[in-house]
Structures are given as structure tokens and as C-alpha cells.
Specification:
4-stranded mixed β-sheet, 9% helix, 1 helix, 115 residues, two-stranded antiparallel sheet
Length: 115
Amino acid sequence: MAKVELDFQKCHGLIPAIAQDHASGEVLMQAYISPESWAETLSSGYATYFSRSRNELWKKGETSGHLQKIKQILVDCDQDTVIFKVEQIGGIACHTGKRSCFFREVAADGTLIEL
């Protein structure tokens, strides 16, 4: 079997990574990974992202304890986006304290509704 070769060059060194609850399918968050964070995710078994604001690797939950244990990784057809199916330890994925970063809905008139 061939090893995956993610296309980091297409998006200037970073590609989107979507974290999804492995049991429920709920989308928890979206972040970016670099070649280094990808390698760390594979070696540690825990989601590690690249923080664009801090310009550094970011192991999700390292300070909060809300780690994301990798259960499965899916790669899209172009090999430039991944889905991390995770066990969300502690039940919180969002830095706001919510379970998911996707806790707002946009109404037909453009109004934001908190779920």
C-alpha cells in the first residue's frame, strides 16, 4: 500500500483539517495542519494543528485538557484536506467553552442565531 502524500504546496504550506466526533459525526472544529503538525498527529495519536495566529504547532487541548484522540483519518481525493475523526476528551472542542465551534446558525435574513 502507498503512503499518503498530502499536498501542502497547493495552499501555501497549510491544509484544512476538520475535527469530527467519531461516534456522533458532529463537526467540532476546523483548523489547519502543516507537514510538522501532520507528522506529530501521526506519531502521537492526538490532533496537532498549526496555529496561524501564533505561528507554531498547537496540540489541541494541551493546556485545557480537552485533547482530541485520533480514531480515524480521512483524506479527500485531492489530498489537500483531512478529516480527523476524534474522541473529544472533556467534551469541549471550542475555545469559547462550547462543545463545537459551530454553535451559530445564519438565518435567511443574515441574522446570527446562537444554538
